[in-house]
Amino acid sequence: MNTQHSVEEPILKYAADIGSLGPVTIVGSRTQWDVGGLPSPGSREIRAPAGVWSHQPEEMTVRCGAGTSIRELNEECSRFGQMVPFDLNPEATVGGALAVGRSGFRRLRYGHIRDLVLQIRHVDHSGLLVTSGGPTVKNVSGYDLCRLLVGSLGKLGCIAEVTLRCLPIPETTLWLTGTGDPFEIYNELYRPPSILWDGDQVWVGLEGVKSDVESQAALLKLDQTDSPPPFPEGGRRSLEPKALRGLVERSEGWLAEIGVGVVHYTTPQVPEPLSDPNKRLMSELECRLDPRGRLNPGRQLVAT
Amino acid sequence: MVPVSPDKPLLDELRSIIGDRARAGDFELGLYGKDGSVLEGRPSIVCLPVSTEEVQQIVGACRRHERPFIARGSGTGLAGGAVPVGDPVVIATAKMNKIIEVDLDNRVAWVEPGVLNLDLTTQLKPLGFHFAPDPSSQQVCSIGGNVATNSGGPHCLAYGVTSSHVAAIEVVLPDGTVTLLGDLTPEPAGYDLRGLFIGSEGTMGIATKIAVRLTQNPPEVRTLLLDFSDVRDGAAAVSAIIAEGLIPAALEMMDHRAIEVVEAFVNAGYPTEADAVLLVELDGLAGGVASGVEIVRRVADAHRVGNVRVAADDAERALLWKGRKNAFGAVARIKPDYYLHDTVVPRGKLVEVLEKVYRIADEYDLIAINVFHAGDGNLHPILAYDAREPGVLERVHAAGKAIITASIEAGGVLSGEHGIGLEKRDYMGMLFSEHDMTTQDLVREAFDPDGFANPLKVLPSGSRCSDSFGQHVPEGAWV
User: Fold this and answer.
1) pLDDT at A111 over 60
2) Which one of A130, A147, A215 has the shortest CB-CB distance to B192?
3) What residues does CATH 3.30.70.2740 cover in chain B?
4) What's the confidence (pLDDT) of residue B478?
5) Which residue from A205, B156, B185, B349 has the highest number of Cβ atoms inside 10 Å of its Cβ?
């Protein structure tokens, strides 16, 4: 056994539940349940353990079970003026959010959620625990399996426990809305957290100390509003940021994250195809890390 | 009779691809046998390709001759990742040094792997952007090398390491296939092969083009130099600043010996009587910077700071940073050689581990100098020595191992930004279980089942695929 922190009892039980036989499906809060296809019928449903196991405010790190809800995680962090900017349905689980790997609406400022992950413990196809990454805020020890597991839909391993980086909650948050060229607004501002556009109306989220938020807001001819608009939940596309200029109004509704490239649609969207060499590499990873295809069968990243 | 080198058929084939940019002279083989570490190996042939196609053809030739290969950037790595072992062909990217495109609409730049880190930032700066990772070697290190080791630097405290700043990588895979890992979209389909490749130290293929993300230049920057008469107060101030919810752009610490050697070298006005200094940089919009300066002053006061010097202009700011970034070279004033370490500990354990570092150095009769990224707990103890002293290298290695052990016992990790390479390969078991490492090896095998790409690195020997070239470890290589 390595010298890192000891393994919590519920993690051992989770590993035993997954075991080494039969298909298993890991269940979170089902908030993004249909991403990558529904699980195959007949697989055992298992939940990851929940609970914030340690929060070290002076290190700005938090360690929790994968089944912990984002609400519970951020309630703990906020006691010390900190947050983990997932920006998803607060009932979603941390493990589910990471397994799906879709970032929230403040990505423009805070980056992809995989950049918040410091360490992951997962249960592999044989029911054994694997630790990757490290508990400190900076680490390049060994291969970066953490980034690989984020967005893997549980096909390469079942996330059991994660250590995440926390950030300070900004002093002031302000949302603005109105009409304007979202691309000009993007060029006007310094590292804004969020610019959203539906082809007509634009929403801008600003954060920071009060005087900065006010000075940035003064650059824009927009009105205050309470919050960002609701996000269409029918489908999602991932485009180059500059391709958003080419979005035109259509019968279906959409909301684009300017500078990021994520577009939320009211209707389902077709995922982008993989190149042949990447498809082969991904299949090789699946063959090696889950040779019997027992982890979350039915979910699909690599189309056959 | 002139003996025929066993490398001749391969050399001939490589010369048919890249002409006299395939070299096997003693000078080149010696030069490319080393990197920035104290380790040394010897390549069989050195290749200097200028294009993806040439890299692909070189890899193809290596595979036909069953010869491993190793990619090399500027050779500034400190963990022996670019030291050739297993008799490989070195594929140096120095001549692939073009900035291909600066795409401001997507806020990325496409570069070849041999572009130097600082050259890119120098080109971007007038456009209002920069490349955020800024290792101390940024004047000479290559972006391909940054990708291989997932480089950091002082400013990654606030901005994150290389992985957060690379959108896509064109890679020649170990079987010679060319592919693009990641792309310019925010959520590329499938598994994050890009994230896996970054930091894999050339064991999963060779990067031939890189799309790096551009970071906006901050409108305001303030750089402060704080001096403390007790290093413990300085270290406690580091934790206290972060606990206030302030993440400075950089938060660097230098101990007494470091201050002395740096000041003698660059005359930046560092207070040589201080036990430690903190170099703190705040950047962003004016209000946040001003409020940050206040927090730093208040916390520093509470920790018995001596003087607080705020750089008045860009010139003074550059001077303060010059001291920090040249600290390693300045060590030559004490001893001709040094061994630079890289571990990370929880910020709260900085004092405890620093004290252990001094004790360890005393025990092995070496001089320890500490210049490091305090904000993220990333220690860089320098062990200064004179290689002409008999037996000194053994003491340096033993002290290094003791420092790594102390860091891991304090809840830290093996490396913050230099990587594992050869240097720490056999220490991986201090951090990871056998099963953890077997799993990592399975992941590597998905890219390189036969172990042709930079063999014998990252994972301890005994791993299945790295064994195939083990018999070629040269005599005298410290592995």
Assistant:
1) yes
2) A147
3) 334-444
4) 39
5) B156
Q: Mean of the per-residue pLDDT values for chain A?
A: 95
Domains recognised in chain A with CATH numbers? 9-168 (3.30.465.10), 172-265 (no CATH)
pLDDT of residue B355: 93
Chain A residue numbers with beta carbons less than 8 Å from the beta carbon of B179 are 275, 277-278, 281
Cβ within 8 Å, pair B376-A103: no
Q: Using 50, 70 and 90 to split pLDDT, how confident is the model at A252? A: confident
Please tell me the CATH code under which domain B99-216 is placed. Answer: 3.30.465.10
Q: Which residues of B touch A58 (CB under 8 A)?
A: 239-240, 242-243, 347-348
In chain B, which residues have their Cβ closer than 8 Å to the Cβ of A151? 187, 191-192
> In CATH, what number does B334-444 get?
3.30.70.2740
Tally Cβ neighbours within 10 Å of residue A103. 26
**Contact assignment for A101 to B413 by CB distance below 8 Å:** no
Cβ proximity of B329 and B369 under 8 Å: no
How many CB atoms are closer than 10 A to CB A75? 12
Asked whether A65 and A160 are in contact (CB, 8 A), the reply is: yes
- B2: confidence class by pLDDT, cuts 50, 70, 90: low
- Region of A288 (left: φ > 0; alpha: ψ -120 to 50; beta: rest) is alpha
Per the CB < 8 A criterion, the answer to whether B140 and B73 are in contact is no
B220-328: which CATH topology? Alpha-Beta Plaits (3.30.70)
Residues of chain B with CATH 3.30.465.10: 99-216
Task: Out of B180, B416, B432, name the one closest to residue A140 (CB).
Answer: B416
Given the cut 0.95, state whether the ipTM is greater than it.
Answer: yes
Contact B187 A102 (CB under 8 A): yes
**Looking at the domain B8-92, which fold is it?**
3.30.43
